[in-house]
Amino acid sequence: MSSTSNPDDKGKNGGKWTGCLYFLLADKKWGRLNPDEVSKYFRDELHADEEIILFSEIRKYNLGDEDNQRVWEESGGCDGGRPYPKRPLRSSGGLIPLLKSVAGWFGYWHEYTIVRSTNWYWSFEKNSTGIFVQRSKNLIDVHCYFAGEARKEDRSEGRSSVVAFHENILDVGKWIVNRGELSATYHYTERNCHHFASLLYEAITRTKGNRRLDNTE
């Protein structure tokens, strides 16, 4: 596994698809895994086969307006218990800034999947570079931050579920590889963060059709 501190700006807008899975290491660099390395790394280094999945949720955060981000931070930000602004959006300078503020509030969202396992919290997300995975003993580290940078206005997408199928995080890694998610180049409307988060969540929770971690159709 190779490592990098900045794979195409951590996969933000405009990155080039690499077909790799990135895992955030203790030094805040990204470990880069090719598809044939994922299962072994998850099993041998992360002991993911010992991490039984207990809960999952889809979350989202705003990639847009900086003024709204400042309001959100001033109101307390994402503290693990209150990931919503306490004060309404504000805009100064007339109609155009107000419209930009509204557009930033309703658009430019990035979605990702949170998983709680036996001993860890995990985040799984797709962006324009690859699929990124974080792990921490503290929920706030994975749902309030991405590689140490605050997620803007982080909130629940609306779907969450307790999980009791006795599957583990290694099963998630295998699902990502076996379903061909690392070869599914990012597309802004068809194969984006929302689609990946939904498919993974539905496979973990078995809440839609035949989707499950051991079924990659």
Characteristics of this structure?
217 residues, alpha+beta, 2 domains, 8-stranded mixed β-sheet, 6 helices, 25% strand
Structural description of this entry:
The protein is an alpha+beta fold and about 220 residues long. Helix content is about 25%, strand content about 25%. It has an eight-stranded mixed beta sheet with strand order 1-3-2-7-6-5-4-10. Strands 8-9 form a two-stranded antiparallel sheet. A hairpin with a 2-residue loop joins strand 8 and strand 9. Helix 1 packs antiparallel against helix 5.
Total strands: the figure is 10
Largest sheet: 8 strands, mixed
Strand residues, percent: 15-25%
Residue stretches low in confidence (pLDDT < 50, at least 5 long) are 9-14, 79-92, 95-106
SS field, number of helical segments: 6
Order of helices and strands: EEEHEHHEEEHEEEHH
Note the overall shape. Answer: globular
The overall number of domains is: 2
End-to-end separation in angstroms reads 28 Å
* Average residue pLDDT: 81
Which strands sit side by side, in order, in the main sheet? 1-3-2-7-6-5-4-10
**Rg value:** 17 Å
Computed structural class: alpha+beta
Question: Approximately how much helix is present in the residues?
Answer: 25-40%
How is the secondary structure organized here?
Elements: E1 2-4, E2 21-24, E3 30-33, H1 35-44, E4 53-62, H2 66-74, H3 95-106, E5 109-117, E6 121-126, E7 131-136, H4 139-143, E8 145-146, E9 149-150, E10 155-162, H5 169-178, H6 193-205
Parallel strand pairs: 2-7
Antiparallel strand pairs: 1-3, 2-3, 4-5, 4-10, 5-6, 6-7, 8-9
Helix pairs in contact: 1-5
